[in-house]
Design a protein that fits this description.
The protein is α+β, with helices and mostly antiparallel strands. Helix content is 23%, strand content 18%. It contains two helices and four strands. A hairpin with a 5-residue loop joins strand 2 and strand 3. The protein binds iron/sulfur cluster. Iron/sulfur cluster (SF4) binds next to helix 1.
């Protein structure tokens, strides 16, 4: 992990935009007006456990943490 944290990325063709990820990680993921996730910058170390849970919970396997 670099000093700036890990990156959350959305695989857009897979994402259905229902926003479960934003419910699980509201401090890092907002929803746009259509319900698709907007990632707010890199994920710091203290949020990475929750970020991994959001990745695992995505019903479309559309969220990734690098
Ligand atoms: S949980 Fe997965 S499918 Fe749902 S909005 Fe987030 S990335 Fe998209």
């Amino acid at each position: 992990m670099n000093a700036e944290g890990k990156a959350l990325k959305v695989d857009w063709p897979r994402c259905e935009g229902r926003g479960l990820c934003a419910e699980l990680l509201p401090e890092r993921i907002l929803l746009d007006e259509w319900g698709y996730p907007v990632i707010l910058g890199p994920v710091p170390a203290e949020e990475q456990i929750l970020a991994r849970e959001a990745v695992r919970a995505c019903p479309r396997r559309a969220l990734h943490l690098f």
